[in-house]
Amino acid sequence: MFPFELTILGCSSATPTSSRHPTAQLLNMNERFFLIDCGEATQIQLRKFKIKIQRIDRIFISHLHGDHYLGLPGLLGTMHLLGREKELHIYSPPGLEEIITISHHHSKTYLKYNIVFHSIEERSAVRLFEDDKLTVETIPMNHRIPCYGFLFCEKKRPKKIIQEKIEEYNIPLQEIPLIKNGQDFISQEGKRIPNAELTTEAPSPRSYAYCSDTIYNESYVQQIKNVNLLYHEATFTSDMSERAKDTHHCTAHEAGSIALKANVNQLIIGHYSARYRELEPLLAEAKQVFSNTLLAIEGEAYKII
Amino acid sequence: MFPFELTILGCSSATPTSSRHPTAQLLNMNERFFLIDCGEATQIQLRKFKIKIQRIDRIFISHLHGDHYLGLPGLLGTMHLLGREKELHIYSPPGLEEIITISHHHSKTYLKYNIVFHSIEERSAVRLFEDDKLTVETIPMNHRIPCYGFLFCEKKRPKKIIQEKIEEYNIPLQEIPLIKNGQDFISQEGKRIPNAELTTEAPSPRSYAYCSDTIYNESYVQQIKNVNLLYHEATFTSDMSERAKDTHHCTAHEAGSIALKANVNQLIIGHYSARYRELEPLLAEAKQVFSNTLLAIEGEAYKII
What we know:
Two copies of one chain form a homodimer. Chain A is an alpha/beta fold. The first copy, chain A, folds into two domains: 4-157 and 203-303, Ribonuclease Z/Hydroxyacylglutathione hydrolase-like (Metallo-beta-lactamase, Chain A); 160-200, no CATH class. Chain A is 23% helix and 27% strand. In chain A, the strands form four sheets. The first copy, chain A, has a seven-stranded mixed sheet. In chain A, α8 (252-261) runs parallel beside α9. At the A-B interface, α1, α2 and α3 of A face α1, α2 and α3 of B.
């Protein structure tokens, strides 16, 4: 199995506390490192958790509220000061390039590496990135300004051929890719060997959905159906549901409902309002609806299985 | 004595470490709270050290390198979310208003309080602020972009009248302000009572000079002569003096030299390069030149005496 692991760097909502930072997450997907949102102090959190910042090649910013991107200018500056030359890709709603360009203009900063800004304008789900192993697409959220979650999916891998069968049936090398793709084998004696006898299935592709920030709505339930891990914002407990609606956020109960309706394997809640010193009430509320729920805790790594 | 105290919030140079944050300081000057520079995560440091952020009414930004101001947008947002209505004054070289305005435009943020941006354009020392108790003026630095230190001075206070003398000479109420200002008193019998017999001197006015970032130069030595406390950047040790020159910074030795030439009472060094895990070599080097030197340590408060 390839590594597929999420590390929480920040789990607070708009106002940080002395112990909880604004939103940021690092996703290790088969040794590709994706940064998801980049709240203030993300670079300090990355250092604290001993994550090598230059391994990050793609950054996904959900929206342009400060608690989701204000750590980005500092991180970009540090990447530069530490000698980065590799291209960096940043995906976000429109405006981020202008913000970064103006701050670099006033600091007379000329980066040694190239940033490719990808502006997300489409209000429906679109594919942002794809390689031989994985895809990343947007999940349109409903917030006060344009906002997107992100869906990270492994691609289906080819079947594995059983080594002993190669010898047993004297299978020529050029046949192997075809068999891995599901074809039967015709032996030298003209006998059809069914594919199922020659191969084992690769592990099912895994997926991670990041959903923050949004008012409760079920528009993306279908898109995130059956994901292995769902991170969903749960800014408030249900007694604050009016405040949640007013600010276009969700309660822990609502996060649980989305997880249940989408039939996900596991739910992590986060983006906690600073009013909650203790997070147990948020967890208890989500668990009432969806029992396999965990709290996002800074510095913890969650395997996606 | 009025309180006059400096709290270090961040003491790192451009690249933060897991334990040292970019530059920020809080100056309490007679219960007026001034924020000096505002590196990334300043709002988190303020919370950590239990400083009430709404008490800050004036912010002084030395220059627009990210490590000196990138904590500002987040702090401004948090002041807004916590219900601030009081006006806030921000002093900085030109450009900051544009940077803040564009980030607020994209986040659709409409602050509940007014920010008055004061753009520092004059390359010689100018007075930025004055009230009945204190003055703040710029100290022009020599850095890669326009950069200013700040000089905070108490005003000379009137003499104190000795209570017993009021009774002894039956001094009328309207005479008291004149005596406090140094005038002698003529008693009812026509006898001149010298001022020195009636009053004690108020404590000498105190002063704090903040000098960061700059290449070594003595242009501001005269302006900061005899200050009680000097904070001076000391990014490198002397073996890195070429690098210091190239990046327009100072060594610890040079910081000590400025303190010695300006005949200050005490020196605090800071703005340490991330390459120094241990700060003792920087302290030892400055102390060789100027013995009354302290290290800037985050969370520590330094009384100005």
